[in-house]
Write a structure and sequence with these properties.
This is Large ribosomal subunit protein uL24. The chain has about 100 residues and is mostly beta strands. It has a single domain, classed as SH3 type barrels (Roll), CATH 2.30.30.30. Helix content is about 0%, strand content about 45%. It contains no helices and ten strands. It has a six-stranded antiparallel sheet, with no helix packed on it. Strands 4-5 form a two-stranded antiparallel sheet. β7 and β8 form a beta hairpin. About 15% of the residues are buried.
């Protein structure tokens, strides 16, 4: 598995695909598939069979994963997309830093 620079809770913008230009918060990161689920984006309709928890069944709307390469982190200071660098802080711990504003994410 690869180490990803996008984490749960980050605000990201879609930079390619059907939802290009839209922003949302990362709900979950699927490291083994290099994908992330973004809140309110890439909504699909899933057909659900009736079960004990859902006796009616029917069609459920839910978010589908988006590939990490189609997402970019939004810099909280400038509100623009930015790349991320990994640097050491004063305690020697690795932190994520915005390339545009040099602010710790």
């Amino acid at each position: 598995m690869t180490k990803l620079k996008i984490k749960t809770g980050d605000t990201v913008r879609v930079i390619a695909g059907d939802h290009k230009g839209l922003e949302g918060k990362v709900v979950r990161v699927l490291r083994e598939k290099n994908k992330a689920i973004v809140e309110g984006l890439n909504i699909i309709s899933k057909h659900v069979k009736p079960s004990a928890t859902n006796p009616q069944g029917g069609i459920v709307k839910k978010e589908a994963p988006i590939h990490i390469s189609n997402l970019a982190i939004v810099d909280p200071k400038t509100n623009e997309v930015t790349r991320v660098a990994i640097e050491k802080d004063e305690n020697g711990k690795n932190v994520r830093v915005s390339k545009k504003s040099k602010q710790v994410l």
